[in-house]
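Quick start: read one record
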Amino acid sequence: MITKKAQNKNCFKREWIYTDSARDAWSLIIEQYKVLKPNGKILLPSYIGWSANEGSGIFDSVLNSGLEYDFYDLGLHLEINVEDLKQKVATDKSQLVLLVHYFGFIDVSYIPITNWLSENNIYFVEDCAHAWLTDLIGGRCGRKGNYTFYSLHKLLPVSTGGIMVNNTPADIDNNRKINPFFELNFDLFSIYNVRRSNYQYLSGLLADLPGIKVIYKKLDEGICPQTLPVIVENYDRDKLYFEMNECGFGMVSLYHTMIKVLDDCPYESASILSKKIINFPIHQDENNEQLDKMVIQLKKILNA
């Protein structure tokens, strides 16, 4: 029998719980994990930032949980060292594994990694703070882990807001927190497309610029970038940040300072990339003319 319209309210349902921030959503997820594993452990990527104003959105929640933690290796372009991840997971398959989709991008080995985690019944979470349009519009991440979480202000002109997403809710009909009202009255599909277009245009302008190395040269289908991250070579990253901002171009330097426990670590992501990375804005308020002017100013500063 086939009904005239869909009737199964649980089919493809994801439980959304609104929080004040992505940090709060991540903390809630950890608390859910602790119910299952009170003495559990969290396995984190080796690229976690800290700032004097905000602390660390990822690591503060881990410290507050009181659980043990460890790190798996990321390379210079934030690519996961798959063998290192598997070896770390094999030591304790009850661990919570966190995958972070930095700047809206998924890892080159995302599919085999998540398939392996699922096949081995590993509890894992996807940090989509930067990548929630890559999830919701692109469909490229966020659905494979036990949970995922979003940060609204990373992509929208709002000041607060996070979402905890349970991909396998047990009973969703009686949960009053599902799909709460919050400020999401934006054309997300258009924002997704403008961000992709701006990224492709700007990466083309930067492609042959000496001293600037684009980390993600290829923008795959379904990926919605949060910013355009590059490696700055032969120029002081912090100096470039201030000079560009003084000229009116809103550069950011995400993860410029690592958490203390990653000091002097062997991982390239923390020891090298964090000192050279800078992020160009590619948000939905920009156009090609503005991007042209930004690159002209960049070339003046670099004498390129």
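The longest strand covers residues 15-19.
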